[in-house]
């Protein structure tokens, strides 16, 4: 229940206690809230959200055509399945789904909006986290920001790993000379008018694959995708209902789809990693079959890496490939020599004229939402920590961090993490422990590995900010939902964890 802090000079009317605090009200935060309500009904909890509404990524991203980059049968919640027939969904429909979920399960009333966590300090003498909160502020029309102190036994980070305040900066020579409009998808201008104009989209990832057909449908004059290196792209049917589904009960159909949309990507991933040559041939032939006749597959659809060394891009009903049949969509594989007032000069000598340049070059990654984390006032260097089951960090007691899968839907990893946290808290309560902290042995640290199997530029740039993984035991990075879920629900709670009872 809510109350006042009583120790260390923090006994102020703005000091509030909870058993559990969740940071972020996106997919991860809402999922974690449901699992807490379901399994820990006696625990007091709240969600602290820095923005004015729930949704996280889906609240902020407003670029043309914004949609999921994985299927909603697994990106959606297991406890409240996605019922629509289309597996790839628009950002707007995902927001409605999240709002409906929060309303239906009473989660909405637990969210405290415009509550930005500035810092979090674990206090050993109280066996709680002390959070410094900034509430409101001039930017949201609520006047001056005010500060508050929140205390919690458990802290769950549902902040994802993207920086919501600043995009990844890319060195584009001469970009300051451009006289037209420049837009980054993360902060798309609401008043941007691209109808009838010449647009160059710089990038080759999921965002570019989304924007290009949306611009064509929106009446762009000419849109050119400029890529330094291609990506692997697959078309996915938006309505693949089997004949028997209309005869089966809805609950069975929804479970079947979630199972199949979990299984097939895992099999595809294993196929790509185990047989890269065959996978490359399959994916290039798939692209060729979707493109207009005589469209050059090489070099535009011939990546310089093996499948799934970078994230696979999906396009619903092949809309990205179909856009090239419009006559208004084009693709160029080259590097930028210089940006000039009215376009981009390429290394090949070609010039792309442009009224608008879209820099879809990736997102800036940030861990723990950029919150300053400390223990008894001593700052913790997060990149030096190791991840236990990809869900907790060494040196940080009673802190759960939610990370999804790199090679599957985010929510699959989010849900296994939330189930694990609930299990840990139950174990703590049943045995009257006051804290649990991951501790890695020297032998396990002998072989440190990357937390991500991908070599995308934005991932490689962020590895110095990310915690570490090891090659064995609960320190291994996650790459398989079934294995991860078993570990969360049935795995041991002793290996790599130190449990303590401390009198306060």
What does this structure look like?
One of its GO terms (molecular function) is flavin adenine dinucleotide binding. The chain has eleven helices and 25 strands. It has 504 residues and is of the alpha/beta class. β1, α1 and β2 form a beta-alpha-beta unit. α1 packs parallel to α9 and α6 packs across α7. The radius of gyration is 24 Å and the shape is globular.
Number of strands: 25
Task: Evaluate the radius of gyration.
Answer: 24 Å
Which CATH architecture of the largest domain is right? 3-Layer(bba) Sandwich
Find the CATH superfamily of the largest domain.
FAD/NAD(P)-binding domain
- Note the main sheet: 9 strands, mixed
Assign the structural class, choosing from mainly alpha, mainly beta, alpha/beta, alpha+beta, or little secondary structure. Answer: alpha/beta
Backbone shape: globular
Q: How much strand? A: 15-25%
Question: What distance lies between the first and last C-alpha atoms, to the nearest angstrom?
Answer: 19 Å
What is the averaged pLDDT score? 91
Q: Which residues sit in consecutive blocks of at least 5 with pLDDT less than 50? A: 1-13
Helix content: 25-40%
Number of domains: 2
Number of helices, where a helix is a run of at least 4 consecutive DSSP H or I residues: 11
State the name of the first-level CATH class of the largest domain. Answer: Alpha Beta
CATH topology of the largest domain: FAD/NAD(P)-binding domain
Protein name: FAD dependent oxidoreductase
GO molecular function: flavin adenine dinucleotide binding; N,N-dimethylaniline monooxygenase activity; NADP binding
Pfam families: FMO-like
InterPro entries: FAD-binding_MO, FAD/NAD-bd_sf, Flavin_mOase-like
């Amino acid at each position: 229940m809510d109350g006042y802090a009583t120790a260390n000079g923090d006994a102020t009317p703005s000091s509030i206690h909870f058993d559990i605090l969740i940071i972020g009200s996106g997919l991860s935060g809402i999922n974690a809230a449901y699992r807490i309500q379901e399994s820990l009904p006696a625990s007091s909890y709240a969600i602290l959200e820095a923005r004015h509404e729930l949704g996280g990524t889906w609240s902020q991203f407003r670029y043309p055509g914004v949609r999921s980059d994985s299927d909603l049968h697994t990106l959606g919640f297991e406890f409240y399945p996605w019922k629509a027939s289309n597996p790839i969904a628009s950002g707007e429909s995902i927001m409605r789904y999240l709002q409906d979920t929060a309303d239906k399960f009473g989660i909405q009333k637990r969210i405290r909006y415009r509550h930005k966590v500035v810092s979090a300090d674990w206090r050993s003498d109280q066996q709680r986290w002390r959070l410094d909160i900034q509430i409101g502020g001039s930017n949201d029309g609520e006047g001056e920001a005010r500060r508050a102190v929140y205390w919690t036994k458990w802290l769950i980070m549902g902040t994802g790993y993207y920086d919501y305040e600043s995009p990844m900066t890319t060195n584009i020579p001469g970009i300051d000379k451009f006289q037209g409009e420049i837009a980054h998808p993360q902060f798309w201008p609401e008043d941007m008018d691209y109808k009838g104009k010449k647009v160059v989209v710089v990038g080759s990832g999921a965002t570019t694959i989304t924007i290009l057909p949306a611009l064509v449908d929106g009446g762009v004059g000419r849109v050119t995708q400029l890529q330094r290196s291609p990506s692997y792209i697959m078309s996915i049917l938006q309505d693949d209902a089997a004949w028997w589904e209309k005869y089966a009960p809805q609950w069975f159909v929804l479970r079947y789809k979630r199972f199949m949309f979990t299984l097939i990507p895992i099999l595809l991933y294993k196929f790509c990693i185990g047989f890269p040559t065959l996978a490359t041939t399959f994916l290039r032939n798939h692209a060729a079959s979707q493109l207009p006749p005589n469209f050059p597959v090489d070099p535009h659809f011939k990546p310089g890496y093996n499948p799934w060394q970078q994230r696979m891009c999906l396009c619903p009903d092949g809309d990205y490939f179909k856009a090239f049949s419009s006559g208004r969509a084009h693709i160029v594989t080259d590097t930028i020599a210089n940006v000039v007032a009215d376009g981009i000069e390429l290394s090949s000598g070609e010039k792309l004229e442009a009224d608008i340049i879209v820099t879809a070059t990736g997102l800036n990654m940030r861990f723990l939402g950029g919150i300053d984390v400390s223990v008894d006032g001593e700052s913790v260097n997060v990149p030096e920590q190791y991840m236990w089951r990809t869900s907790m960090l060494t040196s940080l007691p009673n802190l759960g961090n939610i990370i999804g899968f790199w090679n599957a839907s985010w929510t699959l990893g989010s849900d296994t993490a939330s189930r694990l946290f609930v299990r840990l808290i139950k174990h703590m309560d049943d045995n009257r422990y006051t804290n649990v902290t991951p501790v890695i042995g020297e032998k396990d640290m002998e072989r440190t590995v990357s937390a991500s199997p991908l070599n995308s530029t934005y991932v490689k740039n962020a590895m110095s900010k990310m915690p570490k993984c090891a090659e064995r035991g609960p320190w291994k990075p996650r790459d398989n939902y079934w294995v991860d879920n078993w570990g969360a629900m049935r795995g041991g709670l002793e290996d790599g964890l130190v449990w303590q009872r401390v009198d306060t």
